[in-house]
Amino acid sequence: MPNFWLRPLTTFGFIGLISLLLWATANAVAALFFFSAALLLYLLFHLRNLKEFADWLARPETKNIPQGSGMWAPLFSLLYQQQRRQSTSATDLSASLERFERAAEAMPDGIVILNDKDQIEWCNAVAEAQLGLNLERDRGQWLAYLLRQAQFSDYLAAHNYREPLIVKSLRTRDLTLSVQMVPFGDEQKLLLIRDITQIERVETMRRDFVANVSHELRTPLTVVGGFLETLVDAEQVDPAQMRHYLQLMLEQTTRMQRLVVDLLTLSKLESGNGGLHEGPVDVPRLLETLKREALSLSDGKHRVHLDIGSADGLQGNEDELHSAFGNLVSNAIRYTPEEGEITLSWEKHPDGAAFAVSDSGLGIDAQHIPRLTERFYRVDRGRSRETGGTGLGLAIVKHILTRHQAKLEVESTAGEGSTFRAVFPRRKVIQLGKEAPSAS
What we know:
Layout (H helix, E strand, L loop, with lengths): L5 H20 L2 H31 L13 H35 L3 E5 L5 E4 L1 H7 L3 H4 L4 H4 L3 H9 L6 E4 L7 E9 L3 E8 L1 H37 L5 H33 L7 E3 L1 H16 L4 E6 L4 E4 L1 H17 L6 E9 L2 E8 L21 H6 L6 H11 L3 E7 L3 E9 L3 E2 L10
Parallel strand pairs: 7-9
Antiparallel strand pairs: 1-2, 1-5, 3-4, 4-5, 6-8, 8-13, 9-10, 10-12, 11-12
Helix pairs in contact: 1-2, 8-9, 9-13, 10-11, 11-13
């Protein structure tokens, strides 16, 4: 303000000039009285402006800034401009903060902002759910006090935040969290929380899968290797014994081949490469084929029945459906004692249509049913190996049915047999224009 002092100096000069003129034309008393009265009025003028300024400070709003006069006018004008800039900055800052909070709330990961004393300043809803926090209640609280975990307290005290810390949620023990501290600003910290429960579950499944495959291959490889060593070391081998050894090696080799084929099939289904090539599937005709295969696999040791109660077909992939139904049929034969009965049925269902395999076999305890479709899960490992099962059949069935929007239902009672039912939705059922054949 280069002209700030110009107005008061001009005013004082004018008062002084008038006082000198009165002194010269009248007398000193008149000049002194005028000078004192003018200064008093000037002081009252400034006091009035100061009062308006004080009143505004009590309620600092842009619309209430005094207009002012004299040297106060430019001051109030500057104050108005400054207040406008501050108001604009506050609005922009508030909008930025609101955008940040909306973005943080939209993130799938939990976020907690801590001050230099590790006290909570803000957190999003995801963090509240993951850590059991409540922002209104816990704002200003020490995070370590709320999360009473020794490993987390050690992580905070170590000040080594290069690697995330893996912890179990205090609120839900089945929840696995990855937490990492990120320092920023003036000794503030940002705590990032990610739910890695599914990643941990997949990693556990991968480790179990590798261990199971290794275990399944170890036994047949040991058998084949042992017989080969015996044959190599033997100077003379009885032909009958040789045939026995070769037969056992063939059985173990076939077992490994089935395992590899099932692994490749499962891998192809899980990857979903190539998509699902669908077409009309004649299910009644497919069941006739499955019955012939069941009789061949049973070798006359079981009674196999066919019950086709619907002439409908399916829109799907015939090779995959043949594989899924065939796995259910072969399982029924493996786990049903000789002279037992097995029934293959195709019928209408309230949800659409259903293929079912019922047997009079060993049955399954209820505790095992939810886990039957897990890879390599077996109710009786010893019997599974005796019957040549790979432990992947029902996992393959589950994936194929999922690709066809179908579901697998299992009904079983230990010692009384089982029924495995594949239920297809109405949208997958198609009319083939044939009458339903009679039961056989």
